Amino acid sequence: MSTRRDLRNHIHELYQENGASNALLQMLSQLIPESMQEELLQDEKQGCPEHYVDSLPRVNKNKIEDHETCSICCCRYKEDEYPLVVELPHCGHCFDLECVAVWLSKRTTCPLCRDDVLSHKPKVDVSQVEMEDDWGMYG
User: Fold this and answer.
1) What's the pLDDT at 124?
2) Cα–Cα distance, 112 to 74 (Å, whole number)
3) Which residue ranges does the record assign to the RING-type domain (predicted)?
4) What is the pLDDT of residue 45?
5) In terms of C-beta density within 10 A (0-12 exposed, 13-18 middle, 19 or more buried), how is residue 6 classed?
6) pLDDT in tens, 12-52
7) Which residue stretches of the chain have pLDDT < 50?
């Protein structure tokens, strides 16, 4: 059985050889668990659209407690003179807009509960909407 040092030396040798990148990738794929490989591949996926992040509801400064902090950067919201705090729909977790914008540019989940933020679209109640009777009215 080889030691870690032997394994590192073997990887270094594979990396140094020309044309051996395929062997190196095969060895690394055996070392990295499948679940982690899938997670790494998912990181390549696009996150939320920019218009989604721009449309997140802002939290009024008066509703923010002095002790509340962003779970991403761990800074208190009120340390900023003009805090831009947003609330994610459905789960209700709040973050600095700048922090969550970076996160959502790469993922479509809440940083805290991993809820898929795009799967919960608000439902619009159209039961009380009056339909226009004369469709030909505008051309």
Assistant:
1) 47
2) 13
3) 70-114
4) 56
5) exposed
6) 666 555 555 566 666 666 777 776 666 656 555 578 888 88
7) 1, 124
Q: Which residues contact 115 (CB under 8 A, 6 or more apart)?
A: 88, 90, 91, 109
Q: What is the DSSP string of 110-126?
A: -TTT--BTTS-PPPP--
Domain 50-106, CATH among 3.30.40.10, 3.40.50.280, 3.40.30.10, 3.30.70.260 = 3.30.40.10
Instruction: Give me the sign of the Cα torsion angle 29, 30, 32, 38.
Output: positive
Q: Are 61 and 79 in contact (CB under 8 A)?
A: no
Q: What is the CA radius of gyration of the chain?
A: 24
Q: Is 19 left (phi over 0), alpha (psi -120 to 50) or beta?
A: left
- The secondary structure element, H or E, covering residue 96 is strand 94-96
DSSP state of 87: E
Q: 79 — phi, psi (to 5°)?
A: -70, -25
DSSP 8-class letter at 76? B
CATH 3.30.40.10 residue window(s) in the chain: 50-106
